[in-house]
């Protein structure tokens, strides 16, 4: 395994660990708020808002790890009925389309992030936060997912004993 692949795997694993940690904190906060409301005690303002932001961040941060480990949602009912060569072609087409979609989303995400960062726009609700804090993960995650799709495409184009992990089933 090359150094760059190990760095990539470390990054996506770290992001997944952050998502899991966010889930644990979210469970504690929501549970704590439910208990304090039931007991008519003061509760932390912004927990509902924070949970909205956290759900998006958790999904984004975990996505590259899930894709790498094929833990994402995949509907293969029709694909499983195809002959092996067509299944491989379908997988390759899916990866190319995925690369195109994530590359475009990456580019748009970078533009929106930079625009938001430059403007310094704030979001005023229970919590007051900078808008760009809700947007940084889109370009990062789309870049990582693009790398994953590119790796699968390269592995299919230049098969070797080391790259058999991403072969179509």
On the 0 to 100 scale, the average pLDDT is 90
Number of strands: 2
- Using only C-alpha atoms, the radius of gyration works out to 20 Å
Number of distinct helices? 4
Which descriptor suits the 3D outline?
elongated
Low-confidence stretches: none
The helix-strand sequence is HHHEEH
Decide which structural class fits the backbone: mainly alpha
Percentage of residues assigned to helices: 55-70%
- Arrangement of strands in the largest sheet: 1-2
Distance between the termini: 22 Å
Strand content: under 5%
Describe this protein's structure.
This protein has 169 residues and is mainly alpha-helical. It contains four helices and two strands; from the N terminus they run αααββα. The chain has helices at residues 3-38, 47-68, 84-119, 137-157, and strands at 122-124, 128-130. The protein has a two-stranded antiparallel ribbon. The protein is elongated, with a radius of gyration of 20 Å. The two termini are 22 Å apart.
